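Hi everyone,

Forwarding the result from last night's run.
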Amino acid sequence: MSIRSSIKRLSEVLQILQQYENHTPPPVEIGFYRTFNNSIVYISEIDHDHDGRAVILSGGIDNHTPGDSYWIVDGYHRETDIGSHLVLGVAEKLDLTLPEFPTPST
């Protein structure tokens, strides 16, 4: 990636993050979420520190693509180094539930 394209990408990330400058992330619990860049993720587990494992279902950014997972801490990507991944913080919890399927009998 060239310096020019890096500057362009980081500028795009900064524009997205500025929209959420005063945003309070929703509590992290198992469920579906929309991220700052409108990706859809599913928090599939909560660890002992109350951090959530997010699985990208659609969207993503750069090296974070659908099927990848990452940890959410207090609503934000666990890796806090400056980079495009920061737009994968959770903006809102979506009101979606999966239907329950009967357990097959053996």
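The chain is about 15% helix and 30% strand.

Cheers,
N.
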